[in-house]
Write a structure and sequence with these properties.
- Helices cover 34% and strands 21% of the residues.
- By secondary structure, it is an alpha/beta fold.
- It folds into two domains: 121 residues, no CATH class; 265 residues, Alpha-Beta Barrel (TIM Barrel), CATH 3.20.20.
- Strands 1-2-3-4-5-6-7-8 form an eight-stranded antiparallel sheet, covered by helices on one side. A seven-stranded parallel sheet has the order 9-12-13-14-15-16-17. It has a two-stranded antiparallel ribbon with strand order 10-11.
- Bound molecules: iron/sulfur cluster (SF4).
- Iron/sulfur cluster binds next to loops.
Length: 402
């Protein structure tokens, strides 16, 4: 439990809150500023909004006192995010000066915050750009993982709805380049590594390299950042995306070896159980390979995260998409270690999918239609208390790598 301390001589509502990995100064119920052990601002709340900063200095702002059911979400780029962070540092430093720190392990951190303020976040944002360029997307349960970018971009990069990696040329790092990248990441994160429980191998399909190469990668990662589920303060596991159309799926025996080296779950953009919808999405998934791949991963002791697109194909494919996806899900050997994400298709106006929908006059799903389609798909799955997978919504607009 975080400890709370208030000094008698300071405003009654001013507190410091300590968690193992976060120091928070808060005043009243609606204003707070939280910092990691590198002195970098992680999140804040003021004026009825929540703010979360990414490694790149960008910021996601959300309203938390919403009267209408509409969620208020504003994404600030790095320049704007750092301006807001500047305000937050100034305010937090003033508040810190009025309270007495009681956990000595945070003293050097507080000294850093007071001495350097916003520069800490600016330096990390600059280093992040040098090391990563960008981290375009992660599954929601991995937003807080430490990303190690083995590959950059997506080798295929032609799905009609996806614009995540359009601007990024695909490449696989050599082992030497990857080692230098990991060393740079460790240096950038510094003592704030204690906030990370998982590693995520990026980008779109880091597992899509020959098995021998992959083994060397897993051994390197374990040498530099040991994965040890027996120690709750250590990294607990490795996670990654996989596509299922660029190469033959790994065998169960190969998956078992990767599981022994820390691989816990693999996320696959399944998108739909319908061949027709997959064609519209220009996603070359083959359903028999998806079956094989999921079976091998499960047999090898690796969990799966399957992502399906709610609303794919619009109203034209409303029933086909739901029925075929339901059928597919009922055939896969999923259990409580797995996750099914239902991600609403975000119609990027610059995407080929948007062009198709316009030319074909295909109506998108209303929020109510999307909820109904979600319910149809959910009904195909066993509940978690009967050893079924977890099912969750996935809103890519909420993504920020923090
Ligand atoms: S959806 Fe996946 S496979 Fe398709 S372009 Fe995007 S990252 Fe690549």
């Amino acid at each position: 439990m975080p400890q709370t301390k208030r000094l008698a001589a300071v405003p009654a509502e001013l507190h410091l809150r300590y968690a193992p990995d976060l120091l928070t100064v808060e005043i009243g119920a609606n204003e707070s500023y939280s910092f990691d052990r590198a002195g970098c601002l992680v999140r804040a709340a003021w004026d009825g909004h929540l703010y979360r900063w990414g490694f790149d200095g960008s910021c996601l702002q959300k309203a938390f006192t919403v009267r209408s059911s509409e969620k208020v979400r504003i994404r600030h780029d790095t320049a704007a995010g750092l301006v807001m962070a500047h305000h937050a540092y100034d305010r937090a430093i003033r508040l810190f000066s009025q309270v007495q720190l009681e956990q000595e392990s945070w003293r050097p951190v507080l000294q850093q915050i007071t001495a350097y303020g916003i520069q800490l976040l600016q330096n990390r944002a600059r280093r992040f750009k040098e090391l990563y360029g960008d981290v375009s997307i992660l599954p929601p349960d991995q937003y807080g993982a430490l990303v190690l970018q083995l590959t950059e971009g997506c080798r295929y990069n032609r799905c009609s709805f996806c614009t995540f990696y359009k601007h990024i040329p695909y490449r696989v790092k050599t082992l030497e380049q990857f080692e230098a990248h990991i060393q740079g990441v460790l240096d950038m994160v510094g003592p704030a590594i204690d906030r990370r429980q998982n590693l995520f191998l990026g980008d779109a399909n880091a597992l899509g390299i020959p098995f021998g190469q992959l083994l060397a990668v897993f051994e390197l990662v374990n040498r530099l950042i040991p994965v040890n589920p027996a120690d709750k303060t250590a990294i607990q596991g490795i996670y990654t995306f996989l596509d299922i159309f660029n190469r033959r799926p790994y065998t169960a025996a190969q998956c078992k070896v990767l599981a022994q080296l820390g691989l816990r779950r693999v996320y696959i953009g399944a998108e739909s159980g319908s061949e027709q919808v997959l064609q519209v999405l220009r996603k070359p998934n083959q359903l028999h390979l998806l079956h094989q791949c999921v079976a091998a991963l499960k047999e090898g002791g690796v969990g799966v995260g399957l992502i399906f697109l709610l609303g794919a194909g619009g109203m034209r494919y409303y029933h086909e998409h739901a029925a075929a996806t339901t059928r597919l899900l009922s055939q896969l050997p999923l259990d409580k270690r797995d996750i099914v994400y239902l991600s609403e298709l975000v119609n990027d106006p610059h995407s080929d999918y948007a062009l198709w929908a316009e030319q074909e006059d295909v109506r998108p799903l209303s929020p109510e239609d999307a909820r109904n389609q979600e319910q149809m798909i959910r009904r195909a799955l066993k509940p978690v208390d009967e050893d079924g997978p977890r099912v969750s919504r996935y809103d890519v607009r909420e993504f920020i790598y923090y």
